[in-house]
Amino acid sequence: MSLQTRSMERTSAGEKQQTWQQYRIFIEEMNTLIGSALVEEFRNDHENDINPNIIVGNGERLPRGATKLINAADLKELGQIVLDSDIVIFHQNYCQAEYAYKLLKHGQYQQSKIFILISNPLTWSTTQLKDRKNDETAMRQSMGGDVEDQPFLKKYEKFTENDLPMRKIHFLERLKYLEQQIIVCDKPQLHAYVITPGLVYGNGEDILYDLFKTAWMTPDAELPIYGDGNNIIPMIHVNDLANIVNKTVTLTPNEKYIFAVDYDNMTQKKLVTTIAKSVGNGVTKNVTTPTEKMLTINVWLRPTQVFESEDQYIDAKKNPIIIWQCKEGFAKNILKIREQFKLYRGLDTVKLIAHGGTASGKSNLCKQLANFYRIPHIQIKPLIQELIEQQSELGELVRTTLQQVKDQLVAEALAIFEAEKKKKKVPKGQPEPVFDPSGIQPRLPDSVLIQVYRWRLEQNDAQNLGYVLDGFPKTLEQYEKLFVKEEGQLIESLKPKGVIYLEYPDDQLKEKAKLILDNPRYSEEQVVKRLANFRKNNEQLLQQYEQFDIKRISDQESAFEQSKDFITRNGPILVLQDVKEEEVVQIEEQQDDCTPSHQVSTLQQEKVAAVQQSQVQQSQVGPKKKGDQLNKSINESRLSKDNKKLTDEQKQDLIRQQERELLDQRSQPLRQYLADNVVPFLTEGLINICEKHPENPLQFLADFLEQKGNELQQLGQ
């Protein structure tokens, strides 16, 4: 099938005529952060089912919306694909990009082609900041970002694309040379562009991954800021970068060099602090050794004016061509970016309520679950103590309220004490009774208690990882105030995903309470009173909890295991986690045991070989990918322990699933062969049938395929 651009008209009764134009697009490294965003930007198979864009590229796996994987290291294959494509995009391997550009520059072809090089902001990193010329220019340059909290920015101006001759590069000379070649390209059939982005963020993160991971999984982490942190870092969301690339393809502007940055005035200090406050615990530290070179650059770039009106500062916001996701920048969109990180990394949260009567074992179970899943165990006493010691508005409210409640309780208790004292005369020779208020323990009213719990559930660790609430809420009113909006809708960011109900009869709970010594809250009188209150509110709470799923547990010995099964009822919980040495050794030992001497089946042997192959591959990838693969192995090893407890029927299902995965892996070469040699021609034949509506479509398709086969044979293919 010809890979040239094709267009087709599509009409139906009562609809206007719509024209679809198909492009053949090459995207380098489709599985990277930028590559995957470009694939999503250019794919149109979900809109155009007749002749969607054909997206080809290299990578580890074929992403959704792409058509074919190639081996870009094979320059012959790469050259054929480049010459056959309408749009060619490189963003990582600049040696291959130079080869592809020269091929297009000197090659012979009829239809126009577009070549885009996504460059590197480090090419500007050795260029001194541009001093401002006058106050008016500085004001206009600063629009789109705040500079009041960063007064040093007022001394400088942003670089524009016209300042390219001022750029000084002390490294990346080959990239600089390639950029210069592209900018002066004068071939009529070739539209070539250089797009220089800022630091790319968003989705699953790449450069910022280590900062996100550290803040996400380490409660006491201190995120590093190199030097004073006042260096300026241009940035852009990866989806906005992909959109700018798409607009460049669509509009083919006259400008050959384009900045792709957002409108924020970001510094390293502001960037790291934003991540620390919105993802971690808010703590940072200054370091003398940089952890990431991209975070040390100091360059101020103006967002491109290529796609905007002439006076961008007046008309840019009226009807912008670029559909921004994060135009205002990283800091103002951090919550959206945090949710994207969770989504793209496949992370999940464990949000639970442990519900049950007095002495049912809620706290012990919560502690086990919190340690296993590394989620906050939220108890009222430690929570109130934390706020009492905290210098904040809520902390002050808690301290003030507790003191007011205590003063009131002490006054009431003192009045009762004095009344009793008057009634009873003290025997001669015995000391006068003294009022002791130390035993009076004030409790927060619900109005403040709900604020305390809501504050805790909104903290980053609870939002990132989840939580387990220990015996709260206790009443329907508390539940509604904590989880329900005034309009009656649940608060999505706070609501639990399940409830574990430790369901025991009162007699059993009373017996368990007798085993708890030296605690007045578990005296017989107190237990009876607390159980009565629990039963009074229990049915109403359970009715509300039904919408989250309830796991009823009445066996204390297996409560933890039953809870884990309940949590993973919809699949394993994936979390970011550090890998301990003993866990790695344990995984390796398990793999070493899988030998023929242990009578392992052929299927198991092949899976072990696949694991060993993945270990070899891990030594060839970066630390981010290696950590992800190892975390996946640990999650799978945990699952393997649980598999030992599966029933025979569940084991059979697991074996069938493994066989399906193996068959799918073995069929990959055949599917690729069909995709390369059969599907394109079959698709073209079906399109012809749709266009011509022959009387005998099967015969028409057979004749078409025979004719196509003869043509290919004559061409020697």
Automatic annotation (TrEMBL):
Molecular function terms, GO-annotated: ATP binding; nucleobase-containing compound kinase activity
GO biological process terms held by the UniProt record: nucleobase-containing compound metabolic process
Chain intervals with Basic and acidic residues compositional bias: 638-651
UniProt keyword annotations, A-Z: Coiled coil, Nucleotide-binding
Record's keyword annotation contains Nucleotide-binding: yes
Parts forming coiled coils: 524-551
Location of region: Disordered: 615-651
Keyword Nucleotide-binding attached: yes
Family annotation (InterPro entries): Adenylat/UMP-CMP_kin, DD_AK7, Dpy-30_motif
UniProt name for this protein: Adenylate kinase
Organism: Paramecium octaurelia
Lineage of the organism: Eukaryota, Sar, Alveolata, Ciliophora, Intramacronucleata
